[in-house]
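Worked example

This section walks through a single chain of length 412. The input is the sequence exactly as stored; nothing has been trimmed or padded.
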Amino acid sequence: MFSWLKKEGEKTESIDNVVEGLKRIYKTKLLPLELHYQFHDFHSPQLEEPDFDAKPMILLVGQYSTGKTTFIKYLLERDFPGIRIGPEPTTDRFIAVMYDEKEGVIPGNALVVDPKKQFRPLSKFGNAFLNRFQCSTVASDVLRGISIVDTPGILSGEKQRVDRGYDFTGVLEWFAERVDRIILLFDAHKLDISDEFRRSIEALRGHDDKIRIVLNKADMIDHQQLMRVYGALMWSLGKVLQTPEVARVYIGSFWDQPLRYDVNRRLFEDEEQDLFRDMQSLPRNAALRKLNDLIKRARLAKVHAYIVSELRKEMPSMFGKDGKKKDLIKNLGQVYDRIQREQQISPGDFPDIKKMQETLANHDFTKFHPLKPKLLEVVDHMLATDIARLMDMIPQEDVNVVTEPLIKEAGI
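Given that input, the structure is written out below as tokens.
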């Protein structure tokens, strides 16, 4: 099914050069700005070598029993260490399924101290999370090009009120920022979006380009019911995502059992092929995604520098510092508006105001640095010339190449 993963070798050299270029410009040009204005305390930890070297990752998110783990098994065409499948909430942990010749399970605490893996920043979520995090290593050809992250089934009703003991949405946000594709799975039999699932989807905002929707177990209903279920799903998603356009929805049954209703077989095969083509593009486009993410990070770092330097400028030199700090946090929206006008920055580049207010409450504004134009000029130069040069190095795909069928002959 995934023979395409073995055909990427000829482009790796130019992609490696792009990744090395990204590492260099991040360390020499963007990192000094981030350190000077405490960017890592407010937004995202410092990027390390494994963040740039990592294979493309796919994050699976959904309520319990929507078929996330079975979806992975179907892609790999085999079980993986630590797999548990059932109608009840069976997956109670984050499982990173990655390639390794030696198969086994690496527990979370060992995983976050491994300098070769990109999970070190996850240690900030504490032992409660690390005890619920593991890496399953599998010698599967599929995983030579990608890694897959399975997440705990999101609960509904009373169960979701029981605290998990760690910041579940915070972990999702961390992964969402770093993965190449986010697949939201829905069960055709239960489209209700629980409060926790709503919060989880909201945590993925800002990464809309990575999101794909899968309506799974669609063979369990006939074609008339399927049409109604699809309409109901689009209506629910429109309310939660709060965007005029809804992400692409793929319909099918992603497991190795015979179809219950065969009338939609052709539809399911076409949808499956479209989804796998989308996943097929991930190894090829990994360098482009890293480039895109670095541009987004650089824009946010620039805005952050303007915000904290403006707050520093507004602080009194002697008395009334606490009162002024509270006043500035309360009226942060006005600070945003002023920076937006003076620096001609788009409103979409500013960080979430509520999160910023919460983080600012724990900082001493007098320790912020005033604006240093030289640091900003270096980042502007990086965006204008260095990034453009790296863009030219990314191999252009031949759009006329015919992709071989990805579906197994035996059907789904």
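What to look for: Residues 3-10, 397-412 have pLDDT under 50 and may be disordered.
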